[in-house]
Amino acid sequence: MKHIRNFIVRTGIRIPLIAWAVIVLYPIIWMIIGSFKNNAEIYKDPWGLPETFSFQNFVTAWNEFNIDISVFNSLIVTVLGIFITLILAIPTAYALERIRFKGSGALFTLYISAMMIPMVLGWIPLFFLLMKLNLLDSIIGLSLVYAMSQLPFSIFILTSFMNSIPKELEEAAAIDGMSSYGILLKIVTPLSTTAIITVSIMNAIQFWNEYFMALIFLQSEQKYTLALAIDFISNETQYTNAWGALFASLTIAIIPVIILYAIFQRRITKGMTEGALKG
Amino acid sequence: MVQTKKQKYLFLAFCLVPTFILFAIFTLYPLFSGLYYSFFEWSGSAADKDFVGFSNYIKLFNDEIFPSTILHDYFLVVTKVIGIMILAIFFAVALTQLRIKEAPFYRVIFFFPNIMSVVVIGILWMFIYNPGLGLVNSGLEMIGLEEWARPWLGDEEWALPSLVLPSVWAGIGLFMLLLIGGISNVPKSYYEAAEIDGASEWQQFWKITMPLVWPQIKVSILYIVITTLNGSFIIVQVMTQGGPNNATHVMGSYLYQQAFKQFNFGYGATIGVVILIISLITVLILQFFMRREKVEY
């Protein structure tokens, strides 16, 4: 009796699970398929399969809608952002975790609470600050802003990881006469590779996807990141009807994320749940 | 090697000072400066920056649109919390308590929208809601409910509720995983004992699962509330830009419009200050109401 009931429950529970999986997957798959259709097909049968697979939309998006430049810009922002974040976060995380000093707790709390503050208020003065520093409408300026936005999260993940590294290695190195700088660079940083990779993947996804700060701090089309370029194409479709190119650029935007997720699924979910637990 | 005090502090400064200076310039200074700006009327050029005291705040309280943006924000907060929590709890329980072989598959799939760009999510859902081509309207037509079909995002009454579904769609995975983490920490023996005592699965859920994963539920609710109040304007900007007729403006998108579209930077900063105050108060109140004795068996 119990077995039969269990079987029914388990089958019944699968219906909502499968339904939600379809709701999640269908639009994404449809978008990717749509990028291979021509406009006529999109209008005739928007949610069906294409009759012929064509890469024309990708060519159009790439050549006529500046997607080539914006992919390049997004790549630069992402890589530069990751790099700046690491340079700033690793030494701070190490000092906060390993060196005893007055105010270390307060400083840590200050960084962490910045994760919860709505930055939208700060964006107005930041806009004028960047203007003064000649960093407005600049990929470098945006990378710096991005790095600062992910700094608290990165410090948090790195400190909690460094906490799990045994102190003995550092102590042994110090006895051998290695300087603190050497220990940080040659012992702690390599030992923290796991956390550094996790943080960098999370930041990569964040920077690659980011939209609103780019909207505020970039102005000329030549500087657009992918998210901005797509938003621009989307807003123009009512005049250009370039649905195919829009789908193609959405696909270009999502594929790196899918690849990262396929490779680093565990790290990404762990990083995000840890970040949320702290927030 | 024994470090001298001086060496220690030099190293400490090397580690902390550059980062902190940049953090102070690009994060702390803008926040305080935003507070300062809120007392000025300012269109962006240096010449016409006038100190106006609290008049921006007074203007904000008499603003015709602003109160509705607060309501819209809270509408999104409440509907998202309810929608996400119900589904996330349901999926988390289903994937842990009932031995389903393909559970990892669902976990992987359900989480993916959490790492999609808001731009991609927004544009995808604009298509789903598209009056002519969209899934929602064609779906309604297919099951014979044509009269329910409408231009969802262009309809003043339905545009805001239409924004809830994309947010729930994109948010569930993370909270489901948080709850799964909580549930898998509950010792199996509790459920076995309850089973022997004849407790139904429903009773087990309310008497064991819910109290023991309360910390995760609390964190999830707080997180949804904070991220919605601090970030709901992003999906609004992508999908409706506050329209039609301001029906979907939230506080953040209204700030963007005032500051960066109409160049009322002082007024925009005032909105920012109010957003900050409102979200801090909301979080404090929530924390007060959700405090609950830690349950241990």
TrEMBL record, chain B:
UniProt keyword annotations, A-Z: Cell membrane, Membrane, Transmembrane, Transmembrane helix, Transport
Domain ABC transmembrane type-1 as annotated: residue spans: 70-286
A GO cellular component entry from the record: plasma membrane
Subcellular localization: Cell membrane
Domain of life: Bacteria
InterPro entries: ABC_transporter_permease, MetI-like, MetI-like_sf
Pfam families in the record: BPD_transp_1
CDD domains assigned: TM_PBP2
Transmembrane segment boundaries: 9-32, 74-96, 108-128, 158-180, 220-239, 265-289
GO biological process, one term: transmembrane transport
Entry membrane topology: Multi-pass membrane protein
Record bears the keyword Metal-binding: no
Range of residues in the leader sequence: none
Family: Belongs to the binding-protein-dependent transport system permease family.
Protein name: ABC transporter permease subunit
